[in-house]
Amino acid sequence: MSEGLLKGRVWKFGDSVSTDDIIAGRYKFKTLNMKELAKHAMENIRPGFADQVKPGDIMVAGWNFGCGSSREQAPRALKELGISCIIAKSFARIFYRNSITIGLPLIECPEAVDRIDEGDEVEVILDEGVVRNLTKKLEFKAKPYPDFLLKILREGGLIKYVKKFGRLPW
Amino acid sequence: MGKTIVEKILSKLSGKDVSVGDLVVAPIDYAMAHDGTAPLAIKAFMEMGGERVWNPSRIIFIIDHVSPSTSIGTSNLHKLMRDFARKHGIKLYDVGSGICHQIMVEDGYVKPGYIILGADSHTCTYGALGAFSTGIGSTEMASVFLSGKLWFKVPETIKITIADEPPSWIMGKDIILNIIGALGSDGTTYKAIEFDGSVIKKLSISDRLTICNMVVEMGAKVGIIKPDEKTKSFLGDNLGRIDIVEPDKDAEYIDEYLVGVSGLEPQVAKPSKVDDVTSVTEVEGIEIDQVFIGSCTNGRIEDLRAAARILKGRKVKDGVRLLVIPASRKIYLKALNEGLLKVFLEAGGAVYSPGCGPCMGGHIGILGDDEICISTSNRNFAGRMGSPKAKIYLASPLTAAASAITGKITDPRRFL
């Protein structure tokens, strides 16, 4: 993730997308193969999602994205599909921690969500917390990450961080 | 400025005088993972180059989500857990032991003032005994396996006081569903909740566990109750760090709510949102296909007694399936000795070995298209229990049992 710049086409969702919506429980107990799981991502609420998403695409959603179960398979499946960032009005707590831990950047920015539509081109500068809607030529500012979380994201997640530095960041 | 319970616990264990918003690192008393999350944590632990866990006696593995296994894939993940546990000397509760949260409470791992992390969102349950406990994901759990500690942001605390004269039939489930309905599924995101008031004092430990179990359904990090005489008699000799689990009189809360329960009716969450809560009288008569009594929310002996009280000498409606799953082996045995299982079987129900059952659609009782279930579990998201076209209503064991008899959602007060 060079300089924390992310860019992609937007997939838009509503409020309270649960981790059951992202990946249903019935799949996750059988395998650790994320490629297999990712095929079923979002299928309950957006059939065909896994086939249509392109690497770099960005998800935009309303309040409380990722509510429900602690399953880390949810952000992992989205990352596996190539989702580069999720922008939402708010995130559920465990989903938020899990996403950073596995190296999937999240941006909490209600103003941006209201002004982004499905299919828009959006750019995110992670280090500065800047969201740009390139289609509508609008710019928004979200709260940037604390340093140690940004470091984890820059390394692509906690596992890669530990592999590189030989220790945990805390 | 005074401190709330979570500020006291995080101050004590991080060794700093913390306040809201601080980022702290604290040692963990117990770390728990189950068959839905432990395999991925083990994989992450190995990818991080982990060789030895920080303290095997502080890690608990529990096979409860798909237990016993129903596929080769699941069996291989269970095997991965057993092999890792054996290699590292970790205690593993195998098939039939029960649901992780019940075992953690029942086998004495949960103590006041402890910090307990579980790779499961309902780890917040243990706050009922005064523990700071919350859910994390698998990779963070792997980092706890490595180091025995984790970072926390000190949460703001909301105080919810539950007062009034409670109706005789009321259960913890009715109270917490009512609160979730009022505050919404993201009403307390990232926050800690302290429950207090005359009603909390009257409630059993079982009902308190039900209440704390569901705080995550409104986004909370922790739900916590100051230990009292009931907690002490439940815990026995080891009271943990009970001295630090009392809020200061001048503690600062971000919000304070007063909840009255005297006029409350039995509560039901409608499909497919946990915060879409109404009185049972508003949904009475809706026909159902399946009734599930069990889960970490409502699979305790008190819940089974409540259900049996209604089902005794009565029959489950023809065409309706009643599944009863005690939350642990100990509860199963107690229910057996008390004759409760006989009541369920004579009524025409099915009793399964302890575990999570249909709650998250892993096995046992998966719903088909357009089927309707009333369940004592904690989530009713579309697709949670099988088909995304199925509908799930959440209610107390009393309401679920009454509904099993009529085949329709039913006010349990008709049978009491």
Description of the structure:
The complex is a heterodimer of chains A (170) and B (416). Chain A is an alpha/beta fold and 170 residues long. Chain A has a single domain, classed as Aconitase, domain 4. Chain A has 9 helices and 7 strands, in the order E-H-H-H-H-E-H-E-H-E-H-E-E-E-H-H. Chain A is globular, with a radius of gyration of 15 Å. The two termini of chain A are 22 Å apart. Chain B is an alpha/beta fold and 416 residues long. Chain B has 2 domains: 250 residues, Aconitase, domain 3; 146 residues, Aconitase, domain 3 (2-Layer Sandwich), CATH 3.30.499. In chain B, 32% of the residues lie in helices and 19% in strands. Chain B contains 15 helices and 18 strands. A 5-stranded parallel β-sheet of chain B has the order 4-3-2-5-6, with helices on one face. Chain B has a 5-stranded parallel β-sheet with strand order 16-15-14-17-18. A 4-stranded parallel β-sheet of chain B has the order 10-9-8-11. The model of chain B has no long low-confidence stretch (mean pLDDT 97). The interface between A and B is large, with 41 and 55 residues.
